[in-house]
């Protein structure tokens, strides 16, 4: 029993948080290149330059000034510009991944590195960059798992097309997909279309300037159609391709047995399951159509959109799992809880990380069961991890037993779901297998990796890599195929 022999152990990163080299090698600007650093107490900021030459700074989810175009200020620190510099350290990092025993490596391709404006202009130097990475991974027997679009959009498409609210962006995205599907045929067979599609809602992520429900759901419809068309295209170009979706999955428990709290939890979970329903079942769920009716949201569709959604169902569900939450029908109890991205209730039965994220290993087993029972397609945990303050000892060692403890319990929950519940689980790629910039806060001190990177929140440091204690522990886990979880 236990995990299958071909189980994909590995780790996960994203270009905008890890790669750096933001204008190197012909790369164009992306929206996340305009977002500053921050902290859990001081939100990240976006800078803009208006057509009149004035620079304005607004909150991340605020609307752009009329006529503004994305820009970056020279006197601000932008973590994505260097990130933790995979652009110049990829050979060293891949060697460390191989030393840990990775079977796969989940990474994203920067759309703006391949198509600097997001349109049909192709940057050959960007294609070569990723080709070298894939060849290096395959040299060590590590399968690339590629997220096609991870939390950003070429700035040109945001400025000139209002991002994904414009249907024309679907065609530009498919051109990007066709380019990479053909170029990397035989090198990459595991793909995901959009990272955490249920969290895509802002200028930085999808290039929209207004976040009203009509604009947002129209943009989401375009994302759904683009994903479906990409699945069909990817299968046509290479029948060996396995193309999945990716969602942030946060199971919600009723705060009490009060039926009203149970209904509140059901409605919370529906907010996530809607995105899976469309991409796995190929249609909008009835409750969402009723929501559109109530809110007078009219989605502009073309005649063949429904057929595309049905034809372009994904091969597997990739999902992130960091925490669970609780739901209450009492509005006085419901407020934003750290990391959840949605209003929720603090669960008194769970401990939390330094950033207020509930730690719930059993919730991962519950999530696996709920998803597999509902959808009956293979599952892939493509993010899971523990952001923490790591202390470098005088001798250079990092004793991150708290991280090992977190992973021990979550991997055991995975194993129970496979052995006891019969869940079809493809693999496991913990988030930030190497230290990278936090997407939510822009910090470096919120560290996830098995590999330490010498860099601080202001961008100071040598970028030197070193192994944490968890590095050797995860190496042991992979070597034993998940059988040896002991902290030795």
Automatic annotation (TrEMBL):
Catalytic site: 383 (nucleophile)
Cellular component GO terms held in the UniProt record: cytosol
Gene Ontology annotations of biological process type: carbohydrate catabolic process
Molecular function GO labels: beta-glucosidase activity
Swiss-Prot/TrEMBL keywords: Glycosidase, Hydrolase
SUPFAM superfamilies xrefs: (Trans)glycosidases
PROSITE patterns on file: GLYCOSYL_HYDROL_F1_1, GLYCOSYL_HYDROL_F1_2
Pfam families, alphabetized: Glyco_hydro_1
Stated family: Belongs to the glycosyl hydrolase 1 family.
Protein name as it appears in the record: Glycosyl hydrolase
Source organism (scientific name): Enterococcus asini ATCC 700915
